[in-house]
Amino acid sequence: MVITKKERRMVAFVWFTSIFVLLEVLAFFLMFVMKDTMAAAKLPFPHTIFIVFVNNWRSLLEAGVITFSRAAIGFGIGAGVGIFLAVIMSLSKTAEKIAFPYLIMSQMIPVLGLAPIIFNIVRDMNLSRIIIAAYITFFPVSVNMLSGLKSVEQDKKDLLYSIATSKFEVYRKLMFPFSMSYLFTGLKIAAPMAVTASILVDMLGSRGGIGVRILYSLYSNTTDIFWASVMTSALMGIFSFYVIVIAENLLLPWRRGASKKDGEKV
């Protein structure tokens, strides 16, 4: 069965509309049928959230840019560290055996507990955002990049070595291009997580950022701003994901062709 691009958009539209209508019905049921006094806080009408979002878009955008910019810097640093670690571990089995358990153990520390520690050490909110975003990013990037580097068939490497190709050239011409799809998989996982981590750091006492808007709206009981801020946070995560998707399509055009072929077959 072949699905055209127009039909995929129609499916997405039907899904979005169905979810929107379902939430409207549930909010109506909660407020007017069950007469829940906390209905507006538990599940507000989606159209009211959208209206509040439109009316406050400038302040929400300013707060979002503060959080997103720091998350982007941390994401870049974390991705660089992750790639470097993956290359080191692919070059040396000993390095992999030493570093990999520590990589896994590093992810056992909850961000909620680590963020205050980082803030108390560096005493700078912007730097804390960057460090936490980098911390969240490096693990999925390093693991996926390492998987890509290790997936290269030994026969191909042996062929290059047989014609006196240097290790650097083997990585440049074979292993890095082969592992790019794995790398972008890790980047797509890490990007929304870096944004979420940056929002979490906002709540530790920052003066600006979308996390601050969420926290203040909770304290002041302004549920409309709270939900609009949550909606902004979700849009930031979606935006970060699609930035990576666009970068992947631009840098790996053969992947875009393969995805289209896969999408056409159901």
UniProtKB/TrEMBL annotation:
| Chief place of localization | membrane
Family from the record: Belongs to the binding-protein-dependent transport system permease family.
**Which membrane topology term applies here?**
Multi-pass membrane protein
Q: Which Pfam families match?
A: BPD_transp_1
Q: Where does the chain cross the membrane?
A: 12-34, 65-88, 100-121, 127-147, 182-205, 225-251
Species of provenance: Natranaerovirga pectinivora
One GO term (biological process): transmembrane transport
Q: What is this protein called?
A: NitT/TauT family transport system permease protein
What Gene Ontology cellular-component terms does the record carry? plasma membrane
**Stretches assigned to the ABC transmembrane type-1 domain:** 60-247
Cross-referenced InterPro entries: MetI-like, MetI-like_sf
| Lineage of the species this protein comes from | Bacteria, Bacillati, Bacillota, Clostridia, Lachnospirales
Q: Which UniProt keywords apply?
A: Cell membrane, Membrane, Transmembrane, Transmembrane helix, Transport
Location within or outside the cell = Cell membrane
